[in-house]
């Protein structure tokens, strides 16, 4: 039996992960996928899943930025409940079993859901080593994205929000470290630009404080120490991302103050 939920996904060139994502939300009455220009076979996979009878609606929309693209996808949803899921995520068995119960709780407008990362050389982290909780499931009309979010977009939900436990999302993103660091570099640039655009001045001391705090929070509080060296590497990647974000914010302002023009007076060197 399908549930009165619109799952919505944004994607581009996700042929290696999109099918399992879509199949994991096949219990939804509607699955909205917004593609921003795939050329790797993603659209062909979605067409095949449509032909199988999955309740897919596939739309093509030029890239607007993470927050704006997800808001566009949300606005296409028609069911009483809306569920945001990324193309490299899957609904875990435990979360799938909980879904019917979540929709009948009249005391809430939304649910926070955690995520279990896949670590190269380890597998999915154990349930005791999860991410923080994020707003993902909400009543239609009660949630929205900030369209100015260039990266790490979040959902604002009106009214009461509860946490889902047990169960969460399985984040299958087995990207090798080289490619992952390219991604962290790109995302840190977007986050630095976003903070600058919102008038937040750089705070150089965060280059010292944020990376170790980020590492220790994930390694100890979120339990990644349970995953051996793969867990250590995962936390270190996040700490590097944190450093790059703060360093780029500082550098952008410093280069405006002292433009990179080669000095003519170099006496004493």
From TrEMBL:
<comment type="similarity">
    <text>Belongs to the glycosyltransferase 2 family. WaaE/KdtX subfamily.</text>
</comment>
<protein>
    <submittedName>
        <fullName>Glycosyltransferase family 2 protein</fullName>
    </submittedName>
</protein>
<dbReference type="InterPro" id="IPR001173">
    <property type="entry name" value="Glyco_trans_2-like"/>
</dbReference>
<dbReference type="Pfam" id="PF00535">
    <property type="entry name" value="Glycos_transf_2"/>
</dbReference>
<dbReference type="InterPro" id="IPR029044">
    <property type="entry name" value="Nucleotide-diphossugar_trans"/>
</dbReference>
<feature type="domain" description="Glycosyltransferase 2-like">
    <location>
        <begin position="6"/>
        <end position="130"/>
    </location>
</feature>
